[in-house]
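quick one: beta-D-fucopyranose bound model?
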Amino acid sequence: MNETTDFPRGFLWGAATSAYQVEGEPLADGAGPSIWHRFAHTPGRTHGGETGDVACEQYRRYPEDIRLMRELGLNAYRFSIAWGRVLPQGTGAVNARGVAHYDRLVDALLEAGLTPSVTLYHWDLPAALDDRGGWLNPDVAEWFGEYAALMYRTLGDRVALWATLNEPWVVMDGGYLNGGLAPGHRNVFEAPIVAHNLLRAHAAGVEAFRASGATGAVGLVVNLEPKYPATQEPADLAATARADAYMNRYFLDPVFYGRYPEELAEIFGEAWPEWPAAELERIRQPVDFVGVNYYTRAVVVDDAAALPLRAGRVRQPRHAYTEMDWEVYPPGLEDTLRWVRDRYGEVPLYVTENGAAFYDPPTAEGDVVEDPLRVAYLREHLRAVRRALAAGVDVRGYFAWSLLDNYEWSHGYSKRFGIVHVDFETQRRTVKRSARFYAAVIASGGAALG
Ligand code: FCB
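yep, here:
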């Protein structure tokens, strides 16, 4: 087989962002604030108190960013819609100016030959809905369904890929268990309820899609991180199974099989409720694709003190780690893509996020920023995708995280993930070597990966 030509025709070569991380001006044109706006403006919640108030100014600068993507030869862009821009109260009155923004964005992408890939929920719940209980309120599923239907009605004739939720596991774990992300709760009893409501919302979003007559495909985006046992001791093997159930199977098992992994009852103990069978039946609905966000792996040990999971991770001596302290482990991407196919069947897959934060200087000198570690990261992970393709996994696209250095949630602007550098003083964009490398890979149909 010719290793250099096995990216299929029509493969999407993209980059990804999310609304709160790049747009800036979160309250412009009549938008309602989100839980991230609130959280970031609460003292002590984010690195240096940094917020998404300015970010990359993509709300205004999107034509420039689209030009950049076109120059690089990308053929797809994954972005998210800020729910509160189109429905300031989360439900009810539509904000036409917010809708018009995304309408223009989609048209501009199509004009530039870029396939729009829309994420409906990338963590920025309207604050007005949080005031009504947010993800803890069972009504959130119908609120989300109403919002999703509005977007399908408005953009459904032009958008190829719709993801209901981005990384529901992180919404639950970061937002309601560890509290490092908005809305910042720390409550083990809330976490399973939030997860269930996220799944119910996803189902409502899929149902609304099927009813809408929109032309594209609908799926969900999950963060997957393969779990490898540190030893073959039974306790470590059991901890690895728990960690895997918790992060990797928690959302996909209900969507594909209508049941939760059995380890979850053990993990959550008395915080684990009984779930109505009819709700799990509704959650189990065919999706057109699964988006996989992959960054790292975990090598797992039993750890009685790490509640509720009772599993810890072991640092790998002499392995490379990113600025997030995530191990660089490219084979894990191939393993993950194969695992999804083996466990859930022949569903089309997209790598919806993959990338690395490495140190880059705040100000770029010259017309390219040298980022050799990110070039290597990209090369090795794209090779892993190619191996998965060679093994018959139906991977349809790859989106680098991220197009731009941006607002990395509670880390503020301290972690640079972009293949394009952003000077946050001037908003100047400068391509990094990784972007040039990616452009060469795209132009060569993969051959430049070697
Ligand atoms: C993912 C998020 C994305 C970004 C990357 C680094 O979990 O989906 O917004 O923060 O991590």
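The chain has one domain: 12-449.
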